[in-house]
């Protein structure tokens, strides 16, 4: 007996089947957001060293923000402030002649970075200073997420065959919801990476189990 004959015996494709498909489609609408989210949260906005340590309590505090950047941050060849170096001490003479910048002592950023928040209010780079020597950690978030997807595909493929697709699909929904929200409240990068891995793990179950059903 063919599947079409069995379906006809139970009154064909009706309200129950439509409701089931509708309920499974709704969670799948969120999948593209998870898969594409890293394109936005991993953006590294323009940034420069936090030069508050150069404040000598005298002239520096009376300068405008633009003037502070002139005396505190070296300029790159393209005319933009260096994102990872700062002067060892304020170079006030640059206010009069900004071209005499050769051989001035510079040091790596001492107190973190200040980022341009015009386009992005907050990203992984601005939250945990994932710039310069930590850029790889920022880029690794996508790989960590898709590792979770890969392991989730193997795990839920086996679990759904062994324990039933309805039960494992509900578990996938719970994992994705709980760890997806937990990602937003992570207080350090390590916790965020673990939450993203587990979110990817759960999403994989939502994806492959719903398709079969």
Report on the structure:
The chain is mainly α and 213 residues long. Helix content is 55%, strand content 6%. The chain has nine helices and four strands; from the N terminus they run ααααβαβββαααα. It has helices spanning 3-9, 15-28, 31-36, 38-41, 65-72, 124-128, 135-163, 165-184, 189-212, and strands at residues 47-49, 85-87, 106-108, 113-115. The strands form two sheets. It has a two-stranded antiparallel sheet with strand order 1-4. Strands 2-3 form a two-stranded antiparallel ribbon. Helix 7 (135-163) packs antiparallel against helix 8 (165-184), helix 7 runs parallel beside helix 9 (189-212) and helix 8 packs antiparallel against helix 9. The longest helix has 29 residues, at 135-163.
Summarize the structure.
By secondary structure, this protein is mostly helical.
List keywords for this structure.
9 helices
* Shape designation: rod-shaped
Kindly state the percentage of residues in helix. Answer: 40-55%
Strand order of the largest sheet: 1-4
What's the Cα radius of gyration?
27 Å
Residues in β-strands, percent: 5-15%
Q: Determine the mean pLDDT.
A: 84
Distance between the termini: 20 Å
Number of helices: 9
Instruction: Characterize the main sheet.
Output: 2 strands, antiparallel
Question: Which stretches of 5+ consecutive residues score pLDDT under 50?
Answer: none
Q: Give the strand tally.
A: 4
Structural class: mainly alpha
Order of helices and strands: HHHHEHEEEHHHH
